[in-house]
Write a structure and sequence with these properties.
Number of strands: 12
Order of helices and strands: HEEHEHEEHHEEHEEEHEE
Shape: globular
Helix content: 25-40%
Strand order of the largest sheet: 1-2-3-6-5-4
Structural class: alpha+beta
Length: 247
């Protein structure tokens, strides 16, 4: 616990130092092999009355350069808004802004909440990048190879998983009959399992759409990020999930 406290204290000290010296701190979260990397600003709202920014799925160095470039334009009086294509940040490609829904804040911009008076009472814009044909993720012709590299945070608060809503996942008839899901497994091959028992009766195995289970139990969104090989379990409906790494 002391190591975690010291680590957290060092991070918050770095945030304050960067904002004091440069007007903004950029927090980075690297990819774990499943969830995409992302970076976000801290300090734009308090310092410039501008929404904080987040970029998902680009290299860390590029994310830093883009956010710093936007910050320089904000200092010159530019106010960025949604549904407008902006050039000059990603060479040869425009970017657009979408408003991040509050339900995503805790998952993505936690330290910005700490800096903004331990609350999420501030706006955040996601900078969205296109594919090589300048199609954006919401366009019909967007390259499907990039689909899961850039989560869109202006939507999907009720379905946070990175996969398609109609993805087939494994469960049992007991769950479909109302038993609480207590054990979740994200297999190394990408398959998901949702069970009420640690050793389910495989004769009762069923394949259902992932969205169907999330609709039945929205608390599954709390472990959407499980990496390949990781699992999660809980003792009852009022208990938090415990996550176990792949060992």
């Amino acid at each position: 616990m002391d190591d975690h406290y010291n680590h957290d204290e060092q991070i918050t000290a770095n945030i304050l130092k960067d904002i004091d010296e440069h007007g903004v701190h950029i927090a980075f979260v690297d990819t774990d092999g499943y969830s995409p990397c992302f970076g976000y600003s801290i300090g734009l709202y308090k310092g410039y009355n501008h929404p904080e920014l987040i970029i998902i799925g680009l290299p860390q160095e590029l994310i830093g350069a883009i956010i710093n470039g936007v910050k320089s334009e904000i200092e010159n009086g530019t106010k960025y808004i949604e549904e407008v294509k902006y050039d000059g940040f990603l060479q040869g490609y425009p970017m657009q802004f979408v408003e991040v829904q509050l339900g995503h804040y805790q998952d993505y911009v936690g330290y910005a909440g700490w800096y903004n008076d331990n609350s999420f009472n501030f706006p955040v814009l996601q900078m969205v990048w296109p594919d090589k044909e300048n199609c954006f993720p919401w366009d019909d012709d967007f390259n499907p190879n990039f689909k899961f590299q850039q989560s869109l945070l202006d939507r999907n608060v009720n379905f946070k998983f990175l996969e398609e809503r109609n993805l087939g996942v494994y469960t049992t008839s007991e769950v479909l009959e109302g038993a609480l899901i207590r054990f979740v497994y994200h297999n190394e091959d990408g398959d998901w399992q949702f069970h009420s028992e640690q050793e389910p009766n495989l004769e009762h195995a069923k394949v259902v759409c992932l969205e169907d289970l999330v609709n039945r139990d929205p608390s599954l969104n709390e472990i959407y990020y499980l990496n390949y090989g990781e699992s999660a379990e809980r003792s009852d409906v009022n208990s938090g999930w415990k996550v176990f790494n792949a060992d």
